[in-house]
Amino acid sequence: MMKKIILRCEDSTNKRDNKLGVYFQGWLLHQLPNEVATALHESIIKPYTISVKQKNGMAEFIVTVLKDDLIQEVDNVLLSDGLNAIYLTSSKQKEFMIKERVVKVLTEKDLSQTFYQVDAVKKYGLEFYTSTSFKVDGEYHFFPDLRLIYQSLMRKYNVIFENNNHVDQDLLNELVAKTKIVSYRVQSTYYPIHKSFIPGFTGTIKVSCFGNQTLANYLNMLLRFGSYAGVGIKTSMGMGAIEYQEIKKGDRHG
Amino acid sequence: MMKKIILRCEDSTNKRDNKLGVYFQGWLLHQLPNEVATALHESIIKPYTISVKQKNGMAEFIVTVLKDDLIQEVDNVLLSDGLNAIYLTSSKQKEFMIKERVVKVLTEKDLSQTFYQVDAVKKYGLEFYTSTSFKVDGEYHFFPDLRLIYQSLMRKYNVIFENNNHVDQDLLNELVAKTKIVSYRVQSTYYPIHKSFIPGFTGTIKVSCFGNQTLANYLNMLLRFGSYAGVGIKTSMGMGAIEYQEIKKGDRHG
C-alpha cells in the first residue's frame, strides 16, 4: 500500500521558499524513532517522498510512504492528535499551524485495476510542482525528457514492488517510441540542498500516447504510481513531486 | 550588409495574434515589384526575415534583409515617406498606423570585429520572441537545443556569406561540447501558417561558454548574426526571431 498525507498549514512567508522541503525532511526524521530514521538514511532508494506546495497563503507539507512497514511509523507522527504544528527552526517562518489533514491511499490492487481497465485515456497532463532533475552519467539533466521520466518511474516501481531495480529496456523503448510531448511550459530552477544548488525544472507538460490500449494502460498506471513515488532524484528531500491528470477528449486545451 | 527595419505601430488588438507575421509577409511581398517577390518565393534559403512583436499596446513589424541586392527594394517600400500604415486585410485589426521607424545595420566588418575582439563575454541571454522550431528528419523539434540552434545559424551564415550551406561539423561539435544552457524559461506554441499549425517554442535561455576566447568570440559573432538572420525554420514567415544579450559578470541574474 502507498499512502499520501497532506498537512495543510497557514503560510505567512508570502513567497515560495524552496528550502522548506529540506527543513521539513529534517523535522520529520527527527520525529521518527531513531532506528527508523537511521534505516531511512541508509536506504539507497527511499521508501518515502516529501514535497511542499505553497499557494494562496497555504503551505501543504506532503509526505508519501511507499512501503507498508513505514506507514505505521509515519502515521504515528503525522496523524497523531497531539500534533498541531510543524516547527522548522531554520526557516523564516518557524511555526506552521496545521489547519487540515488529507489522507489518500493507493493500493497495488488500484494500480492493477488501472492496468486492466479497457478505456484509459491516451493524453495526460503532468505537473512537476517541485523542482525535478535527473542524473545521467554524473551530470544533472534538467529538461523534461520522456525517456528519463519513464526510466525513473519504472525503476522506482520495481524497487517498491519487486525489490529489484531492473528496467525492461524493450518496454521503455516502446513507451518512448509511442508517446510524445505535445505541449509544455517549463522553467529551470536551482533547488537548494544544504550548501549546494541542484539544477532542476518545474512546470507542466502534456503527453500523448499513440500506442495500443495495453501500452496506454501501462502508462496510466506508471503516472498514477508517479504521483506517489515522485520522479527523478532527491524525492525524499522535496524534489520531483508530480501530479497527473487525464485529459479526456473535448476537455478545454485537450 | 544586413539591415533591420522596425515599424512601430499602434496595436489595439489587445492580445498576441500569431497570424500577424504571415499576413505581414503577404503584405510586404505584395508591395515589392513582381519579379522580386517571385525570386524571393523561389529561393530556398530566404535572404530576409519577418517577425512581429507585440507589447505595451504597440506592434513592431520587423524586417531584416540579409543580402545587399534586396536592401534597396525593401527600403523603397518600408522607408518611403508615402508609407503611413500597414494594411492587413485578413487580420482582426486591419490598419496599423506607423508611429516610428527604427533602422539598424550590421556589416560583415562589424561581425569580423566581433570575432577579433579580445574580451567577448562568455555568457548570453537568448530570447526567442517569436515561435521557434527545427525540422529534424522530417519531424518538428520544438525544444531549445544548442546543437540545432548553432547548426541553423552556421548554415544560414554560410548561405548568406559563402554561398554554400556547408556546416563545419568539428566546429559545431566543439561549440556543443563547450557551451551549456544554464537556465531557461520556455513554453510550446503552435504557429499558424495557412491552414496548419507548426509546433514551436518561445521563451528565454541563458547559455554559458566555457571554451577558449576564440570559441567565445565565434559564438558571440554567431548570435549577433542570429539577431538578424533568425534561427530555425520559417524565419521569413514570422518564426524564429531571436534577441541576444551579453551577460557581464556582476549583472543581476548573471
Automatic annotation (TrEMBL), chains A, B:
GO molecular function: endonuclease activity; hydrolase activity, acting on ester bonds
Pfam family for this entry, one: CRISPR_Cas6
CRISPR-associated protein Cas6 C-terminal domain mapped to chain residues: 126-242
Gene Ontology biological-process annotations: defense response to virus
Statement: the UniProt record of this protein carries the keyword Nuclease: yes
Keyword field: Antiviral defense, Endonuclease, Hydrolase, Nuclease
InterPro entries named in the record: CRISPR-assoc_Cas6_C, CRISPR-assoc_prot_Cas6, CRISPR-assoc_prot_Cas6_N_sf
NCBIfam families linked: cas_cas6
Protein name according to UniProt: CRISPR-associated endoribonuclease Cas6
The species this protein was found in: Halolactibacillus halophilus
Species classification: Bacteria, Bacillati, Bacillota, Bacilli, Bacillales
